[in-house]
Amino acid sequence: MSLVHRPRRLRRSEKLRAMVRETRLAPEDFIYPLFVCGGEKIRKEVSSMPGVFNLSIDEAVREAESAAELGLKAVILFGLPESKDETATGAYIRDGIVQQAIRAIRRAVPELLIIADTCLCEYTSHGHCGVVREGEVLNDETLELLAKTALSQAAAGADIVAPSSMMDGQVGAIRDELDNNGFDQTAIMSYAVKYASAFYGPFRDAADSTPSFGDRRAYQMDSANAREAIREAELDYTEGADILMVKPATVYLDILKTVRDRFDLPLAAYHVSGEYAMIKAAAAKGWIDEQRVMLETLTSIKRAGADMIITYYAKEAAKAVRA
Ligand code: PBG
Question: Out of 73, 148, 247, 315, which one is annotated catalytic?
Answer without folding.
Answer: 247
